Amino acid sequence: MTTAQLDRSTQEVENEPLLQADSVSKTFVSGTFRKHYTRALDTVTLSVPESPPTITAIAGESGSGKTTLARTVLGLVEPTSGAVIYRGTNVADMSRAQHAEFRREVQVIFQDPFESYNPFYKVDHVLRTPIRRYNLASSKSEADDIVEEALRTVGLRPEETLGRHPHQLSGGQRQRVMVARAVMLKPKIIVADEPVSMVDASLRATILETLRAMNRDVGISILYITHDLTTAYQLAENIIVLYKGRVAESGSVDSVINDPTHPYTQLLVSSIPQPDPETQWGREQEARDEEEAEIAGCNFYDRCPLRMDECTVSDPPLYRTAPNRITRCYRYAESPVHLAPDLRSVFAPVGGD
Amino acid sequence: MTTATAVHSPLVVKDLKVYYYTRRGPVKAVDGVSFELHRGERLGLVGESGSGKSTIALALMMAHKEPARIEGGSIVLNGSNVLDDNSEQVRLRRLSEIAMVPQGALNSLNPVMRIRDQVIDGLKDHNVSMSDGEFANRVAELLDSVGLHRDVASRFPHELSGGMKQRVSIAIAISMNPSVIVADEPTSALDVVVQKQVVQTLRDVQERIGAAAIMIGHDMGLMAQFASRIGIMYGGKIVEIGPVSHIFNNPKHPYTRLLISSLPDTRSKRRLEGIPGLPPSLLRPPPGCIFHTRCPDAMDICSQEIPATREIDALRYAACHLYGDDDGKVVDL
Amino acid sequence: MANMDTTALEPQLPSSYDVTVFEEETRWVKVSGAIRRNVLLFAGSLLILAIVLFAVAGSLIIDEKRTEVGFAHAERETADGSIKEVVAPRLKPSGEFWFGTDQFARDIFAYVAYGTLGTLWMGLIAGIIGIGIGTLLGFIGGYFGGWLDAVIVVLSDALITIPGLMLLITISAYLDQLTVEQLGILIGVISWMGTTRVVRAQVLTLKNRAYVEVSKFNGQGDMEIVVSELIPNLAPFIAAAFVGAVAGAILLSIGLSALGLGPQNEPSLGLMAFWFIRFGAVPQGMWWWFGPPIVVIAIFIVGLFMITAGLDQIANPRLRTSV
Amino acid sequence: MTVDYVLRRLGMFVLIIFVAGTLNFAIPRLRPTNPVEERMNQLLQQAGGVHIANVKEMIASYEERFGLNNPLWRQYLNYWIALAKLDFGQSIAYFPADVTREVMRSMPWTLGLVGVTTVMAAVIGSFFGAWLGWTRTPIAVSFVVPLLLIVTAVPFYLLGLLMLWVFTVFWPVLPGGGAHDPLIAPAFDLTTIIDIVQHAILPGAAIILSSVGFWGLGMRGMMVTTMGDDFIKLAEFKGLKERRIFLRYAVRNALLPQVTGLAINIGFVVSGSVLVEVLFAYPGIGNLLYTAITSNDYFLIQGVLMYVIFAVGLMLFIVDLIYPLIDPRIRYRSA
Q1: What separation in angstroms does the CA of C233 have from each of A90, A322, B120, B141, C236?
Q2: ipTM
Q3: How confident is the model at residue D335 (pLDDT cuts 50, 70, 90)?
Q4: Does the distance separating the beta carbons of C19 and A153 come in below 8 Å?
Q5: D72-84 vs D52-66: helix axis angle to the nearest 10?
Q6: Domain spans of chain B?
Q7: Measured between CB atoms, does A129 come within 8 Å of chain B?
Q8: What is the pLDDT of residues C25-48, one digit of tens each?
Q9: pLDDT at residue number D79
């Protein structure tokens, strides 16, 4: 495939995305006199189409920028450069009404199902407030119906859930109420930031299955932020692997996890503790032990077991190693450089093969 | 698991009961747990929140605090019951006979002391007398054995990454060659790559010094990678215990079976199924089998009688009414 | 949403043994439990309640005239043997004058009651103003951040180091006679920094809590978030800061008044201290003069301290020593 | 210790001086009429105790310093120029004595009394607090907590008053006022030192007794918080001796915020000591301020306030510079 062809395919998918993070970067500054800059996110472009509904995983370790990306998309973090565009309008420039619509249609599920609740209120508070603020119901009984239906949708019994304080529910119940809250608002997109990492294993599956059902049956697109590649594999269609704020590798989740090309993804995949005593961890190690070095080239150089001399010279571009795969590594320098900035251009349309 | 071997086992826990005394009554966090730890083996104790696994870790170290009390049973460490010890004996046993790799390593080290001093003070308080040079060598040797550069000795904790701090904790734990290492969710705050390194390090040093290890956690994947034997905890009891391959490939207890089938992997996409219902209240545990409220195979008897532990096959024990005398004899662990 | 397959997600079994079932407690069990868990708060409140009752009831029942100079009279035998009513200063406690009388023949019991009321009133004014300014600035700084926050932080850090009493003394040198209310306002205006620091720090930790962010997605605006999500959780901190501010203001005012620089025309505990220091109650051994105000002040401050400590325990559970 | 850290602290110090100086400039202007001018005119009219030429000279120096006819910004500028030269004008009461010289004469007494007693109170109180916060301390000692509360609750000066009553009236063993016996010629010998210490006992004890509880309670709170930290748990798992856990793990960490507290508290103690000094006729800064106020000596008031704030700010700055030496987390922070 030539570059020209790639560009054309890019054009096709770029017909009015619902939500687009357009080359967003975020740099955090600390220090008063001598500034210290931390580049948490570095020119990432990603869009979510109006249809079909998709599930995209954004994976990486702590410090990879995955949470910063999620918070930027949600409008909680203002990008240092670039813009978040929703229905054609920059979120930063939205009118009050547009912003309210954005807040309703792009919903969130946070990692900590306990912290998501104001300890002062019963769980009802978090379900009834949005009904009131977004005028979802014209009467008290209609509001009750909406709340109860949402709870049933996520597999909770309203009578066992309502009227309780958050600490009276289990972690799994709490997180399911948060899913119910998000779903109740009939959003277009849910950004789920590590939604199951603090939930017990036996309850984890149920929540993931709920998310999947929301995508399949209600048509909500999901951005699944995670450090756990196994749940990403189970839930998502496509995956973006971030390292130090940059896209290291991206593509369909099956191919990326079963055949990782970037040394960082390889390291992540080989570190998965498989729940199978016959599949033991290998002994491969990183090049260096957690010591960071500032070099001009690839930002993974200091940990890369496969590093080469050219890696220190400049940062590698993204190479298109397969129709639905890109990787930021010089070992694939013979592949064409992927030019379209939007990661959406990498992903195959759902059911398109 | 016969009593004859008990003499040679570094740790034998029998019918251990640890209750938390609350205003509402006793919470039976650990309710009759028995297991034996063989020399050089790695036991994984798996359980979800509220299963009592961390309480066991504290009890083994005799570091449980009010309102927790050991209500019964015995903890026989290297042949003598720890519960009979006075506090000074308990203190001396820590580190030298049984050592802990703590959870949440991010704050486990004293922020105002250099790493070297935090390794040495444990030795000093166990009457190890060495010259300063010998202490320095010992510290370097310990850091080496957990894959850290010896320069780390002169650093402060905040200068180390999470993984490095946890390695320091491991170095401290093996500083007196204990016969038992207890690791309570040793990788809970760490990234997946670092998690692997830390667990492998723990495994390496455990094999090198020939200690037995107990790892406590909720991550079945981590257990599969680390343990040679796994005990499944539920509601303060061990419901099934056996060699790791048996547990994963042929689980006997319905809870184990459901737990394993709920685990996502990266081999095939499938419908994810969790375990319906919620963990039991340990304040008012259900009568009979503690799992019967969530068990898909529950029978009438399950809500009436506490199932006995049976030896289902070699070295595998489970407590479930699905198994009768034909499947295995009742044992007193 | 209606057509989705939810059968797998249905709750399946009764939850009578769930951890989530909490026994309902009777009101008395709840109250007694709360008292037992926070003895300090309870005992401190009782002390303050006693003082407030004493001051309010005392000032309602006792004639204000008793606090005036030369009020106390006693019958004395004069040189010629006749019995005559004379002004009676320095009387020891008696049935008529429970705490005796001072150098100026004022009824000390009445004076302590009215003085306590004045001091209490001043403390309340100072506390309300200080807490008002402090909370407002703390919220503005903590919640909205930016340059305004930087200014607030730097200013409060700088002002908090300036010794309050020194400042107050200096200010009073340039002012005419202060009333009790004016002193309260003045103290409130110069002592908001502690509250600002506490509130700002708390707002900073709370505002990034997931629940505050969830409320944004629930369509709540900034004002509503502050009022309905933040303030309820900050209440113990604000209450502790308020009580601390009242205690601080009382101490400051007494200090100022004891030097003779406070309000001179209304009874207050501080003014009483000024009188008994100035007119040598100590060398004269008039323990009934300097004793009562010192005891009242001590009970006052101990009570307020205990309340603050008790509120701290609510706000910071680690400080709870017993379970 | 990074440059950034030192610069920030220095900036804070400068800012404190700036804010205090500005306040000092603004306070006399709180009233529509100038009280200083009023007072001088008053003096001029009475001209009783003061020499009329002196008053005229005072007014001249006052006008020169502030030039009340100048626009406000000009007055403000002049004011800072004078401050930079440590020129606070001349005392009215002790005319023509220089304000700076008066302050410098009183400062050592206050620094000696307040400085020493504050440090003593901090040390004693922290020790008590650590002991109380140590969970292994028998419950029997917890009666000390309410006791500390009560002692702390009585203000410095009232406590001083009670002690004055006990030790000079009831059981007269100590001198009731002053910093030294006026009959003893000041010399650097044992008699003088004993005399000075004797005079310092009562006011010093008042300060210590009333602030020791503050330190104790603060330290106890920090101990309780520290005892819940993970590193204490690991120290127990390591089988360390109680003594080591107590001193090297718990107390060592709980002390850190106390040091910052010491810095801020010095300001409060200096402030509170005004009353103690007045009560015991101790010739320190507090007494000087009191005299200045009772005699409407406005230049002296301004000067004392400025010097006190300068001293407090400087102490804060010094503590800030020392702090990184005891907390390695600040010492090595790179950003």
Answers
A1: 34, 53, 44, 50, 7
A2: 0.83
A3: very low
A4: no
A5: 110
A6: 3-319
A7: no
A8: 556 666 676 676 678 888 889 999
A9: 83
3-state class (DSSP) for residue C142: helix
Has residue C22 got a pLDDT over 70?
no
User: In the prediction, which pLDDT does C17 show?
Assistant: 36
Say if the Cβ atoms of D20 and C163 lie within 8 Å.
no
Residue A320 above 60 pLDDT?
yes
| Distance from the A36 Cα atom to the nearest Cα atom in chain D, whole angstroms | 6
Positive or negative: CA dihedral C154, C156, C161, C166 = positive
On whether any CB of chain C is under 8 Å from the CB of A274, the answer is no
- Residue found by looking up tokens 């600002």 in the block: C196
Nearest to D239 among B122, B156, B158 (CB): B122
Optimal mutation site among C51, C159, C165, interface D, most CBs of chain D within 10 A? C165
Q: Chains A, D: CB contacts under 8 A, how many? A: 17
Distances (CA, A) of A163 to A142, A160, C69, D30: 18, 8, 63, 57
Assign C56 to helix, strand or coil: helix
Assign domain B3-319 to a CATH class.
alpha beta
Name residues 242-261 of chain D within 8 A of B (Cβ): 244, 248-249, 252-253, 256
Q: Is A181 on the interface with C (CB under 8 A)?
A: yes
What is the average per-residue pLDDT within A193-203?
86
Task: Choose from C22, C149, C218 for mutation: most chain A CBs within 10 A.
Answer: C218
**Who among B63, B107, B111 is closest to D237 (CB)?**
B63
Q: Which residue of C has its CA nearest to D288?
A: C166
Neighbours of chain D (3+ CB pairs under 8 A): A, B, C
Return the minimum-mean-pLDDT range out of A151-160, B76-85, C86-95, C193-202.
C86-95
- When the candidates are 1.10.3720.10, 3.20.20.140, 1.20.58.340, 3.40.30.10, the CATH number that belongs to D99-326 is 1.10.3720.10
Of residues A255 and D74, which shows the higher confidence score? A255
Q: Which two tokens stand for residue B213?
A: 């290890």
In chain D, what are the domain boundaries? Answer: 99-326
DSSP B143-183: HHHTT--GGGGGS-GGGS-HHHHHHHHHHHHTTT--SEEEE
Question: Rounded distance, CA D238 to CA D248, Å?
Answer: 14
Taking the whole predicted model, whether its pTM rises above 0.90 is answered as no
Backbone angles phi, psi at C6, to 5 degrees: -115, 10
Q: d(Cα A38, Cα A59) in Å, to the nearest integer?
A: 19
Q: Report residue B225's pLDDT band, with 50, 70 and 90 as the boundaries.
A: very high
More confident residue, C131 or A350: C131
Best CATH choice for the domain A2-274+284-346 from the list 3.40.50.300, 3.30.365.10, 3.30.70.2640, 3.40.390.30: 3.40.50.300
Give C245-300 as a DSSP string: HHHHHHHHHHHHHHTT-S-SSS--HHHHHHHHHHTTTTTTT-HHHHHHHHHHHHHH
Q: What percent of chain C has pLDDT over 90?
A: 28
Overall average pLDDT of the A128-138 stretch = 92
Nearest CA in chain D to A36: D335
* Chain B residues inside the 8 Å CB shell of C14: 293
Task: Return the H-helix or E-strand segment holding A81.
Answer: strand A81-86
Please give, rounded to a whole number of angstroms, the shortest distance from the CA of D310 to a CA of chain A.
24
DSSP letters, A177-240, are HHHHHHHHT--SEEEEESTTTTS-HHHHHHHHHHHHHIIIII--EEEEEES-HHHHHHH-SEEE
A90-130 pLDDT, tens digit per residue, is: 999 999 999 999 999 999 999 988 889 998 899 999 999 99
Q: Starting at the edge strand that comes first in sequence, how are the strands of the sheet with B316-319 ordered?
A: B98-101, B180-184, B212-217, B42-46, B229-234, B237-243, B316-319, B309-313
Distance between CA atoms of A52 and A251, rounded to whole angstroms? 17
